[in-house]
Design goal:
Length: 263
């Protein structure tokens, strides 16, 4: 049976079916964390009663266990509602089971031309000036690696050290629905660890149990860039820290805490 050209199919308002495009590079039954991060971000922005004059400024994900490929349910709740800020929590769970991923988002009130804008101009070669860079070898044909276009301006998935990679979704987030710039950034942000790996994939495990994304500007366009650097302590804790860009310039940062160990 053919799969949708999307990471998810919507079943109803809060239920989704993950497609094979969500599959990560390590386990054929588990998702890459990028698509569910974007799904939870979309849920925060689209929840019933969400204010149109607020925007996500920070979203933190707790990855409680691997996210399975299959039917999923998303729920949201408001933890704090104020005049200028609010905190919203979203949970992702297999239908009928405990949550496997949580997101807590800070939304801040915005207004057009409320203050003078102070932001840096573009600092990287645009994606049109660099060629497509392949993923590292993955043992299955269809997955996150086949659903994303990647173009490195520094480094590569198979090179150790800092990396800078433009990323663009080849498929929609949700079948039949518009993919938004915020979706594109959140799908890409969890790749900082892989973009800037400092240890051999074959010899070491380095997985993130969380992801935090800060955005000072709302993203635009189809491309998101992750400019990442990883540091690892000999005790086995690492940090993948990244600057996030769109084609207009920097838009924020992301960070991932890493568990690092020999395979």
């Amino acid at each position: 049976m053919a799969i949708s050209e999307a990471f998810y199919e919507r079943v109803d308002a809060g239920r989704f079916l993950a497609t094979e495009y969500t599959r990560g590079p390590w386990d054929p039954g588990s998702q890459h964390a990028g698509p569910p991060a974007a799904l939870l971000g979309r849920a925060v922005e689209e929840r019933e009663g969400a204010r149109d004059d607020m925007r996500i400024a920070r979203i933190t994900y707790e990855i409680l266990r691997p996210v399975p490929i299959g039917p999923l349910e998303v729920t949201t709740s408001v933890l704090r509602a104020g005049r200028s800020t609010e905190v919203v929590e979203a949970a992702l769970a297999p239908v009928g089971a405990a949550p496997v991923m949580l997101a807590r988002a800070l939304r801040i009130r915005v207004a057009a031309e409320a203050v003078p804008g102070v932001a840096p101009a573009p600092q990287l070669p645009p994606p049109g000036e660099v060629g497509e860079t392949p993923f590292f070898p993955v043992p299955w044909e269809t997955g996150y690696h086949s659903a994303m276009e990647t173009r490195f301006t520094q480094g590569a998935f198979v090179s150790l050290g800092p990396g800078t990679c433009w990323m663009r979704m080849k498929v929609a987030l949700i079948a039949g629905e518009e993919t938004r710039p915020l979706d594109r950034v959140l799908v890409a942000a969890d790749s900082g660890n892989g973009i800037s790996s400092v240890m051999d994939f074959a010899r070491y495990v380095f997985v993130n149990g969380d992801l935090t994304v800060h955005l000072h500007r709302h993203p635009v366009g189809e491309w998101a860039c992750v400019e990442a650097r990883t540091s690892v302590d000999a005790a086995g804790i690492g940090l993948a820290d990244a600057r996030l860009h769109d084609e207009k310039g920097p838009i924020g940062r992301s960070a991932q805490s890493l568990f690092v160990a020999p395979r």
